[in-house]
Amino acid sequence: MRVLVVYCHPVPESFCAAIRDTAIEAIVQKGCEARVIDLYAEKFDPVMPVDERRSYNECAPKDPALEAHIAHLAWAEAILFIYPTWWYGLPAMLKGWLDRVWAKDVAFAMGDSRRRITPLMGHIRKLGVITTCGAPRWWSFVIGQPGRKTLLRGMRALCAWRCKTLYTAHYMMDSSTPESRAAFLAKVRRKLARF
Question: Does residue 65 contact residue 45 with C-beta atoms inside 8 Å?
C-alpha cells in the first residue's frame, strides 16, 4: 500500500516528530511505501491568493507550487495525518493545505448546477489521524472534536466507499510524562500494524 504521511508541526524536535518517525517505521515494517509531506519544513503557503479563490469553482489550482502535492494525492492509497490539535482543531497550516490542495478537479468534481459534488479520491482506501491534544479526552468530546470530524467525516466523504479510518490521540499532552509518551508511541506502532 502507498501511504502519504501529511505531517504538520513547526518544531523539529516536537513529540509529533517522534510520532511521525514511529509511524513511518511502522508503515515500512509492514511492507508499505511511505511518502512524507512536511508542511512546515517545506514552507508550504497555506494562504489562498485572491485569483485562486476566484477560479476555485471553475478549475483545478494552477499554482506550480501545488503540483507536487496534487501528484502525491494521486499516488496515495492511504493518507495518515500527524499534527497537534490546537484549539480543538487542525493547525492553520494543515487547514490551508486542505483548502488549496483538496480542490475542484483534484479531490472532487462539480456538476454544471454546482448542486452535486462527485468525489474524485476513490483510490484512497484508508484515512488516519494521529494527534496530540492538550485537553482531556472527555473535554475534547464535549467540544465535538472538530479536527477529527473535518478529516474523518468531511474529507473521508471524498475517498473510497467504505474507506477505513483510524484515530488516535495523546490527550493531556501539556502534562504528559516520558512514560505516557513512550506508551503512546507503542500504541501508534500497534494500531498502524493492524491498520
Answer: yes
Q: Are 6 and 81 in contact (CB under 8 A)?
A: yes
The three cell numbers locating residue 157: 466523504
SS3 content of the chain, % helix, strand, coil (to 5): 40, 25, 35
- Beta pairing, strands 2-7 & 78-85: parallel
Q: What is the CA radius of gyration of the chain?
A: 17
Cα(101)–Cα(88) distance, integer angstroms: 22
| Continuous H helices in the chain | 15-29, 50-54, 67-75, 92-101, 137-143, 146-149, 178-194
How far apart CA 2 and CA 28 sit, in angstroms, is 10
Using alpha carbons, select from 60, 146, 128, 71 the residue that is nearest to residue 100: 60
Mean pLDDT by 10 residues, the chain (195 residues): 97 97 97 97 96 91 96 98 95 97 94 81 98 89 88 95 96 94 97 94
All three cell numbers of 89, joined, read 482543531
Task: Tell if the pTM clears 0.85, that is, is over it.
Answer: yes
